[in-house]
Design a protein that fits this description.
Blueprint lengths: L3 E8 L4 H14 L3 E8 L7 E9 L12 E6 L2 H7 L3 E10 L6 H4 L9 H7 L3 E5 L1 H8 L5 H10 L6 H11 L5 H12 L3
Parallel strand pairs: 1-4, 4-5, 5-6
Antiparallel strand pairs: 1-3, 2-3
Helix pairs in contact: 1-7, 5-6, 5-8, 6-8, 7-8
Length: 191
């Protein structure tokens, strides 16, 4: 199997590391060789956080170069735009439509760009946008945006939803399993 490349991008504190752990666990359980590499920014201060997940028959490096990502799962729309050059021409960006202002915007040194998603689409990027925050709240907690987005990503894979759910049970604390399963279902079934 050809190596597949997924980038998970977001802002510190959004749960991108749990999402990459979940994805890595699922792919290992499916028998793939998996490499996961975490690149932390100023995560405690709301900075950019990036995780590379590569899987296939044999994967030699955890790094994804420009133009190599099959999927970018973005927990925030500006982060999607920041990393869109990593996407293959026929790749997909799955993006939470939530806006989280970076520090330069917060202190007034910059303005948050308008129409970020539309600008990516105008460049020919396939964008699958959803309000993961609203869906997470519907599931029971705003902290489940990451699992909503994993549910959406699951639609692009030929792996049964039940196997994703097993990975969720194995990766989250027991008291949070039900809310995360609901969040996964909402992301998976989003129209």
């Amino acid at each position: 199997m050809e190596t597949k490349n997924i980038m998970i991008v977001g802002v510190g504190g959004q749960g991108s590391l749990l999402a990459s752990k979940l994805l890595g666990r699922l792919l290992v359980d499916e028998g793939y060789d998996v490499k996961v590499s975490e690149v932390h920014g100023m995560s405690q201060r709301g900075g950019s956080v990036v995780t590379y997940v590569r899987f296939g028959d044999k994967v030699y490096s955890p790094v994804i170069e420009d133009g190599e990502a099959d999927y970018i799962v973005s927990f925030e729309k500006l982060e999607a735009a920041r990393y869109v050059d990593k996407l293959k021409k026929d790749g997909t960006v799955i993006v939470n439509t939530q806006q989280i202002d970076p520090m330069p915007v917060i202190i007034g040194a910059a303005e948050y760009p308008e129409n970020v998603i539309a600008q990516m689409e105008e460049k020919g990027v396939h964008v699958d946008a959803l309000d993961a925050l609203s869906l997470a709240n519907e599931a029971g907690t705003s902290k489940a945006c990451n699992i909503v987005l994993m549910g959406r990503l699951a639609k692009y894979f030929d792996i049964d939803a039940e196997k994703w759910e097993t990975a969720i049970r194995n990766c989250v604390k027991p008291q949070f399993v039900d809310v995360n399963l609901k969040a996964f279902e909402l992301g998976y079934n989003f129209k």
